[in-house]
Amino acid sequence: MLIESDYDRRAAVRYALNWAFARNPRFYDFEDIGGDCTNYISQCLYAGCGVMNYSQENGWYYINSNDRAPAWTGVNFLREFLLTNRGTGVYGEQVPLSELRRADIIQLINREGRYYHTVFVSAIFEPATPENIFVCAHSVNARNRKLSTYNYADAAGFHIIGARREIALNV
């Protein structure tokens, strides 16, 4: 049975700040084979929810570098997972940047309309503009970097609504 589970924003932000300039040895560093940004963001999200989705078709999980869901490390796959997940793990909705909160994520979009980079919202001040949104990232490590310092054509905000976990019913 699926139940709603809290997304611990403080735990996610603590993780993001702690590992912004380092690599958690529990996870492979994909920096030299396409980038580590979404792997790092998935780690942050996992720190906030504590549950993965092991669905082989459309899951979000990491066992090792060769056994992981595309959504764990792929920009587009993570976006799709967050927006369509009805199972275990985190889920969210796309929102304007002005509606983001700490521990949400942003995906940067280039001039061709391609989503190419994922960053984690570590701090946000009113009004929530790129000048007042601070992020952490890998693939050019960043800790509390202003969103406005990135070079991008557009940005999509994703608010993490919560998470779900499976519980066994004792019959």
**Number of domain modules:** 1
Question: How many β-strand runs?
Answer: 9
Derived from helix and strand composition plus strand pairing, the structural class reads alpha+beta
Task: Give the helix proportion (percent range).
Answer: 10-25%
Radius of gyration: 15 Å
Helix run count: 4
Shape: globular
* Low-confidence segments: none
> What is the averaged pLDDT score?
96
Helix and strand element order: EHHEEHHEEEEEE
Strand content: 25-35%
What can be said about the biggest beta sheet?
7 strands, antiparallel
Task: Note the gap between the termini.
Answer: 12 Å
What descriptive keywords fit this protein?
single chain; 171 residues; alpha+beta; seven-stranded antiparallel beta sheet; 4 helices; 9 strands; 32% strand
Question: What is the topological layout?
Answer:
Elements: E1 2-5, H1 9-19, H2 37-49, E2 62-64, E3 67-68, H3 70-73, H4 75-84, E4 89-95, E5 105-109, E6 115-124, E7 133-137, E8 142-146, E9 154-166
Antiparallel strand pairs: 1-9, 2-3, 4-9, 5-6, 5-9, 6-7, 7-8
Helix pairs in contact: 1-2
Short description:
This protein is α+β, with helices and mostly antiparallel strands.
Q: Would you give an account of this structure?
A:
- The structure is a single chain.
- The protein is an alpha+beta fold and about 170 residues long.
- It has one domain (about 1-165).
- Helices cover about 20% and strands about 30% of the residues.
- It contains four helices and nine strands.
- Strands 1, 4, 5, 6, 7, 8 and 9 form a seven-stranded antiparallel beta sheet that branches. It has a two-stranded antiparallel ribbon with strand order 2-3.
- Strand 5 (about 105-110) and strand 6 (about 115-125) form a beta hairpin.
- It is globular, with a radius of gyration of 15 Å.
- The mean pLDDT is about 95.
